[in-house]
Specification:
mainly beta; Jelly Rolls; 2 domains; CUB_dom; repeat
């Protein structure tokens, strides 16, 4: 994955004068995945072959500042999260994620525990029905579980809570990319050790009543 931090080249039609061209492979005979000039920062580029070949060209006329970029090998993307709290971000955040990504995070709590996800920043490619780049959150262990969030718009300060497990899926297509997302999560435990006259947090009715079923029924009706 390559990410440009500074970019200032002579602008020209089809980048015929000064340019930076990136190839997906070890030589310029492999597939070109982008040619850039001007002053706009190029988008993040990811190699499917595991190698990148970069060619910089300039003519003898207008000069610019040049460019600065860095590369990242095997960017972390998804996984099983075991800490009780932490931060989840898309690869490259906040400088932009790459194209054609599929990242999945799995969070596991206890049966009566809660998992809270707080989305602090989200900037993805905006499309109708979130067809291209999107962030999904599922109440369970996989995409077969009920989906409780499906986002692709620019938003922040979204909070969602599940009980037991949470599955987070981030996908991007092969074209437009944006800043990405950042979120924090927290796994908390609930307790069933409650007084006889109350229900426990996260308990089904009567499960925390240490009395007869008659008392439970009376409590339920009041």
């Amino acid at each position: 994955m390559s990410l440009f931090q500074d970019f200032d080249l002579e602008s020209s039609t089809n980048c015929a004068s000064d340019s930076v061209e990136i190839f997906d492979g070890p030589t310029a005979q492999t597939q070109s995945i982008g040619t850039y000039c001007g002053t706009g920062l190029p988008s993040v580029r990811t190699s499917k072959s595991g190698q990148l070949y970069i060619v910089f060209k300039s003519n003898s006329f207008v000069e610019g500042r040049g460019f600065q970029a860095y590369f990242q090998k095997n960017a972390s993307c998804g996984g099983q999260l075991t800490d009780s709290s932490g931060t989840i971000t898309s690869p490259g955040y906040p400088n932009g994620y790459s194209e054609d990504l599929t990242c999945a995070w799995s969070l596991e709590g206890t049966t009566n525990g809660n998992i809270t996800l707080r989305l602090t920043d989200l900037s993805l490619e905006i499309t109708d029905n979130c067809l291209y780049d999107f962030l999904d959150v599922y109440d369970g262990t996989c995409i077969c579980s009920p989906r409780i969030l499906h986002l692709c718009n620019n938003t922040s300060n979204v909070t969602v809570t599940t009980q037991g497990n949470m599955y987070i899926l981030f996908k991007s297509d092969e074209s437009v990319a944006s800043r990405g997302f950042s979120a924090t999560y927290e796994i908390t435990e609930t307790t069933n050790d409650c007084p006889e006259w109350t229900y426990g947090l996260g308990c089904s009715l009567c499960s925390c009543i240490r009395d007869s079923s008659a008392s439970c029924d009376a409590q339920t009706e009041s």
